[in-house]
Amino acid sequence: MRKGELAGILEDLAEEKKINAEDARDEAFRLYFNLKPELKLEGAIISYLKGKYSLSRAAELAGITVPELKEILASRGIVRETEGKDVSEMDRKIKEILK
């Protein structure tokens, strides 16, 4: 099958059978990723690294837990950057707690 022929078939079906082409595409992707879960994980990681998804959303999309995704990222040498609070703010909060 040539590139684009499947899309054309889908469009014809949508027109003739009154199916929603967008829903059909989404379902096709779901099925594809279920058959190739490693691609689902790779896609989630790539999207996370591009800043499109949070760590928790990427883990959810990949079908794994956040600790599992953290472990996978670490095993690949991917360093996650986290924002810490200002030292003076942390000192102030510690003083409040110790009062």
Topology readout:
Elements: H1 5-17, H2 21-35, H3 37-49, H4 55-62, H5 66-75, H6 87-98
Helix pairs in contact: 2-3, 3-4, 4-5
Task: Give an account of the 3D structure.
- The chain is mainly α and 99 residues long.
- Helix content is 72%, strand content 0%.
- It has helices spanning 5-17, 21-35, 37-49, 55-62, 66-75, 87-98.
- It is elongated.
Features:
99 residues, mainly alpha, elongated
Helix-strand makeup class: mainly alpha
Distance between the termini: 73 Å
What is the domain total for the residues?
2
DSSP summary, beta strand count: 0
Kindly state the mean pLDDT as a whole number?
A: 90
Strand count, sense and barrel status of the largest sheet are: none
Name the helicity range: over 70%
Radius of gyration: 22 Å
Relative strand content? under 5%
Residue ranges: pLDDT <50 for 5 or more in a row? none
Per DSSP, the total helix count is 6
Shape verdict: elongated
In N-to-C order, the SSE pattern is HHHHHH
